[in-house]
């Protein structure tokens, strides 16, 4: 029997736990992109992000009873699992800034050259994107997480605090500090070419 696309997550999860492949595929399609985006923004590494997403869904299928619908949505539960995997990764491995350009769902190029007659503007945009990525990755993990969840994932303070397991005031404070550090980093990047041109 074909499953409706709008079927609730908890219903799909019950069916997936009984080896319903179509139900699992729908759950995966529904949540994979958000998990990948979060993992990529936190690690800066496409390979690590893919591994984390795979681990999240393996965890879900191995023990679906860990998800308790009374405590929140399945999406929030998956973010929590992804967050734990990300933090383990950050403790275990040095940070890497990827050279490849991909969309945050893992497909294609993250940059579209809209005007082929202005390659200099495309290069400036690409350089700026790399600077932002590098600056985010240089933030301490707790500030980076607040910036990624609230600014990039556009979560509310309440949602971000729930996922991070801390009070709303702490998320606000981390976000404020993270924004300040991020702006300082970007200002440093902007000043580098200026200083170089003065030196010449």
Explain what the structure shows.
The protein has 200 residues and is mostly helical. The chain has two domains: 95 residues, Orthogonal Bundle (Rna Polymerase Sigma Factor, Chain: A), CATH 1.10.1740; 87 residues, Winged helix-like DNA-binding domain superfamily/Winged helix DNA-binding domain (Arc Repressor Mutant, subunit A), CATH 1.10.10. Helix content is 70%, strand content 0%. It is built from eight helices and no strands. α2 runs antiparallel to α3 and α3 crosses α4. It starts with 8 loop residues before the first helix and ends with a helix. The C terminus is likely disordered.
What is the secondary structure topology, with strand pairs?
Layout: H1 9-17, H2 21-43, H3 46-62, H4 74-92, H5 119-138, H6 141-152, H7 157-164, H8 168-199
Explain briefly what this protein structure is.
By secondary structure, the chain is an all-alpha fold.
Pick out its properties:
Rna Polymerase Sigma Factor, Chain: A; 2 domains; Arc Repressor Mutant, subunit A; single chain; mainly alpha; globular; 8 helices
């Amino acid at each position: 029997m074909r499953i409706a696309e709008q079927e609730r997550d908890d219903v799909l999860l019950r069916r997936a736990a009984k080896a319903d492949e179509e139900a699992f595929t729908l759950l995966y399609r529904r949540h994979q992109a958000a998990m990948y985006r979060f993992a990529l923004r936190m690690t800066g590494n496409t390979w690590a992000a893919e591994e984390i997403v795979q681990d999240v869904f393996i965890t879900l299928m191995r023990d679906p009873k860990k998800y308790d619908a009374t405590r929140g949505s399945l999406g929030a539960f998956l973010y929590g699992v992804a967050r734990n995997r990300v933090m383990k990764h950050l403790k275990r491995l040095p940070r890497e800034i990827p050279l490849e350009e991909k969309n945050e769902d893992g497909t294609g190029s993250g940059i579209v050259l809209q005007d082929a007659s202005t390659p200099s503007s495309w290069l400036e945009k690409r350089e700026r994107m790399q600077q932002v990525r590098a600056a985010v990755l240089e933030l301490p993990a707790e500030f980076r997480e607040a910036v990624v969840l609230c600014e990039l994932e556009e979560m509310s303070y309440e949602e971000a605090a729930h996922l991070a397991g801390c009070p709303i005031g702490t998320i606000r404070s981390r976000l404020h500090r993270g924004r300040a550090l991020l702006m300082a980093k970007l200002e440093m990047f902007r000043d580098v070419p200026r200083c170089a041109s003065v030196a010449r």
